[in-house]
Design goal:
The chain has 2 helices and 2 strands, in the order H-H-E-E. It has helices at about 5-30, 45-55; strands at about 85, 90-95.
């Protein structure tokens, strides 16, 4: 496919999509039935029958609590008492 035929098919496709989209929108608006308005406070009979048949046990929502990860306490710190070390007549305190 060369450039000229590619550009021609690209613009042709865009034009057809625009025309087809408007034709489709017109046919949908003409064919769509008008919604039946229900008086305030009343429920449609089909919807009411469906709600009555619903099993209530399975409609409850339960969120499982997330698992808690407990960190172990840090190991105990053992402090050594300073030791007295004597070397060459000098006294050192070493931990």
């Amino acid at each position: 496919m060369d450039r000229r035929s590619f550009i021609t098919s690209l613009f042709g496709g865009i034009a057809v999509a625009g025309i087809g989209g408007t034709a489709m929108a017109k046919s949908l608006t003409e064919a769509a039935p008008k919604p039946v308005e229900v008086a305030a406070g009343e429920i449609d009979s089909a919807l009411k029958a469906g709600l009555d048949q619903t099993d209530a046990e399975f409609t409850q929502y339960h969120r499982r609590p997330y698992p808690r990860h407990h960190r172990r306490p840090p190991p105990p710190v053992h402090h050594r008492r300073p030791r007295r070390v004597v070397r060459n007549g000098r006294v050192y305190w070493v931990r």
